[in-house]
Amino acid sequence: MQSSSSSSPLNLMTSILRSNMNKLNSSIEDPSIMEKREMVMVLTTSIAVLIGCVILLLWRRTSGGEKKVGAGMMKKQELVVRVGKEVEEVDDGRKKVTVFFGTQTGTAEGFAKALAEEAKARYDKASFRVVDLDDYAAEDDDYEAKLKKENFALFFLATYGDGEPTDNAARFYKWFTEETERGEWLQKLRYGVFGLGNRQYEHFNKVAKEVDEILAAQGAKRIVPVGMGDDDKCIEDDFTAWRELLWPELDRVLHDDENTTATTPYTATILEYRVVFHDPTDASLENKSWANANGHVVHDAQHPCRANVAVRRELHTPASDRSCIHLEFDISGTGLEYETGDHVGVYCENLKETVEEAERLLGLSPDTYFSIHADTEEGLPISGGSLAPPFPPCTLRTALTRYADLLNFPKKSALLALAAHASEPSEAERLRYLASPVGKDEYSQWVVASQRSLLEVMAAFPSAKPPLGVFFASTAPRLQPRYYSISSSPRVAPARIHVTCSLVYKTTPIGRIHKGVCSTWMKNAVPLEESPDCCWAPIFVRQSNFKLPAETSVPIIMIGPGTGLAPFRGFLQERFALKEDGAELGQSIFFFGCRNRKMDFIYEDELRNFIESGALSELVVAFSREGPTKEYVQHKMMDRASDVWNMLSQGGYIYVCGDAKGMARDVHRAIHTIAQEQGSLSSTQAESMVKNLQMSGRYLRDVW
After folding, report:
1. Are 274 and 469 in contact (CB under 8 A)?
2. Phi, psi of 372 (to 5 degrees)
3. pLDDT for res 287
4. Which pLDDT tens digit goes with each residue over 410-429?
5. Which residues does the annotation mark as catalytic?
6. pTM of this prediction?
């Protein structure tokens, strides 16, 4: 007799069916059974099929019928690893290097991945993993234990805004910088830091500098000076220079003593998605992914919320040659919430004229329906996981409209990708020259200083037509969200997010009219109040520390010319609601600036109403184009130096919003001068006082 384990599942199913039929036939003389014979047959057959399926599954698992996956078919580990959940690492004897990144637009992540890829080729007896700082530890308490285990670490850290860490590095940065009395607990760690910033901003590379200093102070050994990437010029060159300093140091610690052979020259791989083309008739389904856009519990940059444009209106008068838009997103029923002082991130769309030019340069039909994939058909990650997550299947027109940054100047890596797909040898050679160290100065002038967009560069090299997989992976960066200070308070507008946006419209050095992507979209947006077929955008809220004092009676000083007024409109709405609820409000003064009261005095009526209601104590306006001399907010502050000093002496808060490169610096100097003159302080004492205001959270800036 054969064992049941070797019986065919089909034989077992047959036996079950026969058994059921025999029982049914033996009971045929029972009238009640005869009446329900058909029902019983259906029921027993269904049960038999279900049992048969279970037996079939068990048989496949136990009879050796299961497919064995060989080593060559195992999924390759992705380059970026998620280490929030504790994973037991196998000690394979190789030296391990962790490459951390804190990124806002993806540049720091791109540098981290590029360095790790080249390092893997250079050091075959070492392992490299790239880690998002936000994923490094599930809880703050885990950071210390995890860092103690690291022997080699490289940090790529961007600074944005007013010297702030990026969103994904904020939690680590707060933990690492707030507690500096840990002693020399990182003595086994060797490290390097590369910062990404912009020298035009006051706190240039602040995050990278602070992390570098604290690491050294707590016992870690710096193997290379902190890199100072400057996005105001060519940050790629800064990265290349820092990387060349890093290799000799890594050679000393990662190469075996007996390994004295020269390193094989490394050529960076041109990243490319796997592309699958689909039937164009399926394109009608491409917006289906947005149907569930508001189904997420938490909305963030990766899971934005679809919001209709409810209101749009022009804030400047017809006499103005500029434009400023007031726009309201309807967030009712979406689950999206915000607080006064927060920022809203908006994913906008490229202009139709820009998209059509890109289609022409690529030489492809706008109706081309395709999908991009970051893995091979076998499921292996392409380029070790260096590719950004793919966007949903769509037409070429949709992809260029929503996902491709077409108007920024191309990075050198993009020029190399174009060169690889230029059919004209002279064009390929020229592109490679511009991307080379020898062509550094010409790249800086011809591309960066001239503000040539990616499309303008492609037009200058018409034979360069990269395939879609290369274009979206290596040539056109992903279109990033634009951030705006929310100009409303949820106490007054809980179902709306208000935005105050100045139109970007300027002529570049080579004569191109540059239209800001998001500001132009907002100016042209069709609101719900005009048409049920209104415009919408994916949006999300980014929390900010730009908040009113917890105690409503504390005096506040607000400084914000132009659209710098935005968060203060939210502040004043909040104070109006608090006063309506019976709260005692402290003294408040708002220094606002514009060119001319007849052209760009935005929200004038609202500001007057805030004064009448008591939400605002005093409004001081600087009109820069009305008098014989230009007058700005910092001049008005000096005129009221005594009042500013008295409010600060009473524990008041001071807020600044607007341009970081000019206005914010001038205002900062004015505060320093006021402290020095009104407080009879030396320059050093005044500087110390202003710094203490910043450290204690009483001097806050929302600048860009």
Report:
1. yes
2. -110, 150
3. 55
4. 999 999 999 999 999 999 99
5. 485, 657, 702, 704
6. 0.82
